[in-house]
TrEMBL record:
The chain crosses the membrane at residues 7-30, 42-63, 68-87. This is Endonuclease. Keywords: DNA damage, DNA repair, Endonuclease, Hydrolase, Magnesium, Membrane, Metal-binding, Nuclease, Transmembrane, Transmembrane helix. The lineage of its organism: Bacteria, Pseudomonadati, Bacteroidota, Bacteroidia, Bacteroidales. It comes from the Bacteria. One of its GO terms (molecular function) is endonuclease activity. InterPro entries: Endo/exonu/phosph_ase_sf, Endo/exonuclease/phosphatase, TDP2-like. One of its GO terms (biological process) is DNA repair. It holds the Pfam family Exo_endo_phos. Its cofactor is Mg(2+); Mn(2+). SUPFAM superfamilies: DNase I-like (SSF56219).
């Protein structure tokens, strides 16, 4: 009995050490570009699993009344910057504001529910939500419309968003029957538009200069490369979550991993282009938002973020899932900022008509804050 007990303890300690090392590696996997080495990107994707395992080990050792809980506790301390990125624990703050606030909405609208029309008696729920969001500037990804009366039209969208007279749409579809790409709708004048040029068939990033009540700000709207999973690929992933069968691993490797590899490399190159454009702006008031298709533990996120702040990390609570379909539950939509802004709140809407939740952040200008409570 004593031999079995010692063996059990040894195996548990070894498992704890393995998961501690994996958490550290996944926390700092973003330091290596997928172009140079692919494996760290997958470690970063698995960060939540390794984090949860280490928390379980802390609880386990505390229940056993053993000092070994310090192993995972020290690991969490080493990985604290990434733990904070993944699961911020802000309860909000009270500020006294003497000026205007600025509300930014970033939303991957997934072609407005399959191009569902927006009618007076039967509105398009996504478009209705956006129109009533109270945002000052709206950045949309997978923005799409058709030129047939049976589907949503650009006229319907513009009419619903009539409070946003300034808008710019970048059409990636290049066909006479429909339009799709990314779009920015603003209550304030868009005085300049620049494309951040990189190679992609469907995805893009644009920089907008906006005049806001005597101040100039720069907004960068991004929709970086997706993994392009088919319905069959997603069904395979769901089967793996429900029934972890050995034969599914080979199928996953052959079908999904090549797509993930290509997307990781493409996004990393795109992120470097976006990062370069952001750095050229210097200390200007800048907001970078959109669908990054990558988590806060990724090379892409860290490359784009640089010294910018993350509105959700600064004000949010919990993991903040923004993508919610087919068993994939990740925060891949982000709002970053720098300059004279101060993030007050960040909200993740719960409208499920798109595969993404809307992400909305409220900012104030530092010179309009008189006190914190």
């Amino acid at each position: 009995m004593k031999f079995i007990k010692i063996t059990y303890l040894t195996i548990t300690v070894m498992m704890n050490c393995i998961f501690a090392v994996l958490l550290i590696l996944s926390s700092y996997a973003y330091l290596i570009s997928p172009v140079k080495m692919m494996f760290p990107s997958y470690l970063g994707l698995a960060f939540p699993v390794f984090l949860f395992a280490n928390v379980l080990f802390i609880v386990f050792w505390l229940l056993q009344r053993r000092w070994l809980f310090c192993l995972s506790l020290i690991t969490l301390f080493i990985c604290f910057p990434e733990v904070k990125l993944y699961i911020p624990l802000h309860r909000g703050e009270e500020v006294t504001i003497t000026g205007d606030s600025l509300v930014i909405l970033s939303y991957n609208v997934e072609c407005f529910q399959g191009l569902k029309p927006h009618l007076d008696n039967k509105p398009n729920e996504i478009l209705e939500y956006i129109a009533n969001s109270g945002a000052d500037i709206i950045c949309m990804q997978e923005f799409a419309f058709g030129r047939d009366k049976s589907i949503i039209s650009e006229v319907q969208i513009n009419q619903a968003l009539k409070d946003y007279p300034y808008h710019y749409f970048s059409d990636k579809s290049k066909n006479p029957y429909s339009g799709s790409g990314i779009a920015c709708y603003s209550k304030y004048p868009i005085i300049e538009v620049q494309e951040i040029v990189y190679e992609s068939v469907y995805n893009s990033s644009y920089l907008y200069r906006i005049q806001y009540k005597g101040r100039e700000l720069t907004v960068v709207n991004n929709h970086l490369e997706s993994n392009k999973f088919t319905l069959g690929d997603r069904a395979l992933y769901r089967r793996m979550l429900k029934h972890f069968e050995p034969e599914l691993i080979g199928e996953f490797k052959n079908r999904l991993v090549p797509k993930l590899d290509i997307a990781y490399i493409q996004r990393s190159v795109q992120a470097e282009k976006v990062s370069h454009a952001i750095r050229k702006e210097g200390d200007n008031n800048i907001i970078v938002c959109g669908d990054f298709n990558d988590t806060p533990q990724s090379y892409v996120y860290h490359k784009i973020r640089g010294k910018l702040k993350d509105a959700y990390v600064e004000t949010g609570f919990g993991p903040g899932i923004t993508y919610h379909k087919n068993g994939f539950l990740f925060r891949i939509d982000h709002i970053l900022y720098s300059g004279d802004f101060h993030a007050v709140t960040t909200e993740i809407g719960k409208l499920k008509n798109s595969d993404h939740y809307p992400l909305k952040a409220t900012f104030v200008w530092n010179d309009t804050i008189t006190s914190f409570d």
